[in-house]
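Trying the structure run again after the queue cleared.
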Amino acid sequence: MRDQGHADENCEERGMCGVIWDSDGEGGAAGVGALLRVFRAAAGTRLGRPILQREVADALHRSERWYRDLEGGVINRPLTRHELDTIGALLGLDRVQRRALFLVSNGGGLSSPETQDLPRISDELRLLLDQQPFPAYLIDATWNVLAVNVSMAALFPWSAAPGANLMRWLLLSAEARDQHLNWEADAEVCVRMLRDAAVDRPHDPDLQQLIRDTRQNPAVHDLWTRGAADFADHYDGHILQMEFPFLGGQVAELVTHVMQPAGLPGCRMTILTQRAPQAPAGPQPVQEK
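Done. Tokens:
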């Protein structure tokens, strides 16, 4: 039997230390060791050379064996703030990736599905939703549609159906693929948000079921496996290029504006505005000599 340390070192030299996000096949977030391997591999790809375990260990002022045990799951304790900052700086992690590493290290966020009440939409919030001239909708933490205004229901009839779920529609329906002209890019952002939610709420059964269902789709499963280091915690400002067959094939660019109602923690209200078409550049004035 080969020595595990030599196996890891050889694996690093070949650049083959890839890991799957969900090691148990259940769609949940992997442990801190697996996430560290994902981030280290992504940093190596970005820099054009492998980032070895001993480099991270040296930055942490730890032995290579200690860091190998950390990635291997032998060491199981929360990372300190100094360790998180050091790893984040060395591997070039952005804000959302550092947050994900913190959440995985600490067993998720503070929210617990067992302690959350069912969202109750106040009359004032519904009034705000209904008075929007643009399509607008309200979703819960698992992307279940709680309410839509008239414009949203007219433009996206699926959203007004009982049990509508934004993620299920966008990632799994043929209708979404037809309407989203850049479906793969839009779906990739959704997968990044699901990945972030999984580390925030690792024990949320509805979320885990949503992830399992989306991963069964071959095209979506490919997005999960090829971007394991990518996370997103919002959809605000994303531009959607949409085609609406029932409006004669009209094409529009919609901009998402996401707000979080203070009275409904975890819920989000999104307004879709139409992006004004860019005016063609006119002839440049001739400068006098």
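Residues 183-200 form the longest helix (18 residues). Worth checking whether this holds up in the mutant runs.
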